[in-house]
Amino acid sequence: MPVEKLKKFLDARKVKYVSIKHSLAYTAHEIAASTHIHGKEIAKTVIVKTDDKFAMAVLPANYRVAIDLLKKASGATHAEIAEEEEFKDLFPGCDLGAMPPFGNLYDMNVYVDKSLSEDEDIAFNAGSHTELIRMPYKDFIKLVNPRVVNLTA
After folding, report:
1. 43, 60 contact by CB (below 8 A)
2. Arithmetic mean of pLDDT over the chain
3. CB neighbours of 119 closer than 8 A, spacing ≥ 6?
């Protein structure tokens, strides 16, 4: 979902957000430095497979998915981090690794780490490595309807 499509989706639902352009950055550390947002407040989207079905795990950018917790939260018998080659065609118009955490728009389950609920806002890649969207966490939850679970140890 290109950045403009995401903005139209949010605008149509009257969600207040801030679009933050930054220099090209691929890691949470680079994004945090460029945008002056703490790495814990930037959410990353990790594509996972639960029983061979793609899903999104959304967690603070400086954390890692605990596969055993994902498996438990999803009720799957098998869970793993998906390889980029496996999902590169699922997000047309998005830079690989910069997918926004709106799995509902891609018919994917979304699992959000409970720690993100501690912040009033959520910031995430908007489909590119040069722009973030920052919006109220409560609006994100309403739009995406994710399962809020423990994903990090």
Report:
1. yes
2. 91
3. 40, 41, 137
Q: Is the pTM of this model over 0.85?
A: yes
Tokens of 95: 């830079």
**Other CB atoms within 10 Å distance of the CB of residue 8:** 12
Contact 45, 63 (CB under 8 A): no
- pLDDT recorded at residue 34: 84
One-letter amino acid at 13 equals R
Q: Which domain holds residue 79?
A: 3-149
Q: Please identify which residue in the block is written with the tokens 């869970």.
A: 79
Residue 48 corresponds to which tokens in the numbers above? 């996972």
Cβ count within 10 A of residue 119: 15
- DSSP string computed for 6-53: HHHHHHHTT---EEEE-S---SHHHHHHHHT--GGGEEEEEEEEETTE
Residue type, 34: S
Q: What is the CATH number of the domain that holds 61?
A: 3.90.960.10
Looking at the 3D structure of the chain, how many domains does it have?
1
